[in-house]
Design goal:
Blueprint: E1 6-9, E2 18-24, H1 28-35, E3 48-53, E4 59-68, E5 79-85, H2 88-100, E6 104-105, H3 110-117, H4 123-134, H5 138-148, H6 151-175, H7 186-215, E7 217-219, H8 229-237, E8 257-261, E9 264-268
Parallel strand pairs: 1-6, 7-9
Antiparallel strand pairs: 1-2, 2-5, 3-4, 4-5, 8-9
Length: about 270
C-alpha cells in the first residue's frame, strides 16, 4: 500500500562486486539518515560515500548512496539508492537495518507499480519494464526499450486524439446543424473511419506479434520412429543433445530446450 516505505535489493541476489538496495516512501531519506547521519541534508541526485552504521554503532558497509526527493524519482516518492558491496551478508544487514528503522520488504514489481500509480509511467511503459528485465535477445530488448520510452503510448494517443476530434466535429454538426460549421462530408467521414480502423487493427495485430516475442513459441517435434526427429533437434540446437541411432526407439525421454532465432525465443520439445 502507498504511504508506507519499502525496501528491496535492486540487483540479482548472490555474491557480486556491487549490489544496489532501493528504499522508497515518505521515510526513505530518514531511514538512510539513521545509517548515515546527515543524509537529510544531502543534495539530491549527488553521490555520497559514507560508512553506514546500524543502531548501536556497528559498521554495516562502506557504501555510496544517493537521495531523490519527490516527485523527482522513479516512484515519484522520496527515494534512496545504496550501492554497497555485493556480499549477501552485507546486503542482508543493510536491508534488516532499514526494516528496523520502519521500512518493509517490497513485493514483486512494487517499485514499478508505485511509479505507475504516481503517473511516472503509463501502463504500457510499466509492462515494458518487466519485458526489458526479462529480455533474452537483442530484438526483445529493443522493442521493450521502445515501449518504455513511450513509442507505443504515442501511437495509441495519436489514434485517440484523431478519434476524439472526429467525434467532436460529428457531435457539433448534429447539435448545431443550422450553423455554418465546417465538418466532414459523409464520404470523408467514412474514409477517415476506415483509415483509423486500419490503424487500430495494425496495433492489435502488433500485440499478437509482441506477445509471441515476449512469451516465445513452443515447438513440438513429432513423427514416426527413425524419421530424424533427434537429428533435427540437434541441428536446431547446434549441438548433440539427443542420441542419434539407427536403432528404433533410442530416444524415449522427453527433451526440452530453448533456442533464439531472429530475436524470438522457441521452446523445443
Amino acid at each position: 500500500m502507498r504511504g508506507d516505505t519499502i525496501v528491496a535489493l535492486g540487483t540479482p541476489p548472490g555474491s557480486s562486486g556491487i549490489a544496489v538496495i532501493r528504499i522508497s516512501g515518505p521515510d526513505a531519506i530518514g531511514i538512510l539518515d539513521t545509517m548515515a547521519p546527515g543524509a537529510r541534508e544531502w543534495e539530491p541526485r549527488t553521490l555520497h560515500n559514507r560508512l553506514l552504521r546500524g543502531r548501536g554503532g556497528p559498521a554495516l558497509d562502506d557504501a555510496v548512496a544517493v537521495v531523490f526527493h519527490a516527485p523527482n524519482s522513479y516512484t515519484g516518492e522520496d527515494s534512496v539508492e545504496i550501492s554497497c558491496h555485493g556480499s549477501m551478508q552485507v546486503v542482508s544487514a543493510i536491508i534488516e537495518e532499514a526494516a528496523r528503522a520502519g521500512a518493509r520488504l517490497a513485493g514483486p514489481g512494487e517499485f514499478t507499480r508505485r511509479a505507475f500509480l504516481a503517473g511516472r509511467l503509463d501502463l504500457a511503459q510499466a509492462e515494458a519494464v518487466a519485458d526489458l528485465i526479462g529480455a533474452e535477445t537483442k530484438l526483445q530488448a529493443q522493442v521493450a526499450l521502445e515501449h518504455l520510452e513511450g513509442g507505443l503510448s504515442r501511437k495509441i494517443e495519436a489514434v485517440e486524439d484523431r478519434l476524439s476530434g472526429m467525434l467532436a466535429l460529428v457531435e457539433a454538426s448534429i447539435d448545431f446543424s443550422e450553423e455554418d460549421i465546417e465538418t466532414y462530408t459523409p464520404d470523408g467521414l467514412l474514409s477517415l473511419s476506415r483509415e483509423l480502423t486500419g490503424e487500430i487493427a495494425a496495433l492489435l495485430e502488433s500485440e499478437v506479434a509482441g506477445s509471441r516475442l515476449r512469451r516465445g513459441m513452443r515447438i513440438t517435434i513429432t513423427g514416426p520412429r527413425n524419421a530424424g526427429k533427434s537429428s533435427l533437434y540437434n541441428a536446431l540446437l547446434g549441438e548433440e543433445r539427443a542420441i542419434v541411432s539407427p536403432v528404433p526407439g533410442t530416444t524415449r525421454d522427453v527433451l526440452r530446450e530453448r533456442i533464439h532465432i531472429g530475436g524470438f525465443t522457441y521452446y523445443l520439445e
